[in-house]
Amino acid sequence: MPYPHPVPQGVGPLAQQAMHVLYQHRLVSTRQLHQLLTPHHTRAEYLRRQLHTLRNAGLANTVGRRTSGQTELLWWLTDKGAQAVEAVGLLPQRPYRMSPEAALGPLQEHTLAGTDAGLAFVTHARRLGHECSPLDWAPEIAHYYRDDTRPGEELCLIPDAVLNYVHTDQEQRTRTMLTFFIEVDRTQMTIARLAAKLHAYAAYEQYIPQLPASRGARNSRRTATTQAWRSRYPAFPRLLLVLAGASPSHLGRRIADLRSLAASDPDLTTSNLRAGVTTLDQLTEHGPFAPVFTPILGPAQSTDAWLRPVPAAGQSPAA
After folding, report:
1. Closest CA to 66 of 99, 109, 100, 118
2. Is 51 helix (H, G, I), strand (E, B) or coil?
């Protein structure tokens, strides 16, 4: 579907869609764009021509990345391209701007792995008849909170992505709105830091903010009655940890170590956090609704039971 005007002159509908994807996801490979935007085309030549049109117009730029003995192009929007997307007004404005230095920097593989995780949801949603578009997840959305274990500090939880997904059941005639926090780990964090991230999610789930005092009140602040996340989500998002960057056996040991540390954190074991861990290869091959996620808390057997939506018949709940 073409995006509404204003759009840069001479840029076709597919190139406009690519601009929005690049704006949202910052750095995306030709392969990823092909799978996101033109999966019905066996080859990506037409998409490549559209991308080169963007580059020739100064709207996008590229760097090369060596993979499997070949050079793959990675795309991002220039300032001019980002301003053109912002002028359309379809996406929330984001201050982040990619540069050649950042595109070639140490976060390159992490950024691409995050896009591959979102791509797995999009691909399997198409296969299953669910709904998840290339713009249904956004990277690095800030969530502010406080933690009783760190009194006086204003903390910020930033998931690698927040992803929205509509799970449909044709037999039950239900549509379930799902939201996920996604964290991608390429074995560059220690297990202790990963466990600390889990603790942060549990703290955010429990966090009830303080509000300014009402006029004439003696106390300077008053406490809200509900958790902060309820103003953003109808239900607390499920947390998915996606591991990559090492052999399956190494990632398996990492999962076991993470579960062990999580089980020793009383704030986690008593929380309502629904969290699971898998590998990027498993997620890509089998999809998010296959039994590929190992719950971080509780029995270690991989399952899909904690992830599957279970709506009441005839309803369309959010979860």
Report:
1. 109
2. helix
Edge to edge, the sheet with strand 60-67 lists 28-29, 70-77, 60-67
Q: Which residue has the tokens 């190494």?
A: 250
Residues whose CB falls within 8 Å of the CB of residue 222, separated by 6 or more in sequence, listed in order = 210, 211, 212, 213, 214
* Secondary structure string (H, E, C) spanning 254-283: HHHHHHHHHHCCHHHHCCCCCEEEEEHHHH
**161-211 pLDDT, tens per residue?**
999 999 988 777 888 999 999 999 999 999 999 999 999 999 999 999 887
- CA 13/CA 7 separation, integer angstroms: 10
pTM of the model: 0.88
Look at residue 99 and give its three-state secondary structure: coil
Residues 6+ apart with CB under 8 A from 213: 219, 220, 221, 222
> Which residue intervals of 142-292 are DSSP H helices?
191-206, 248-263, 266-269, 280-286
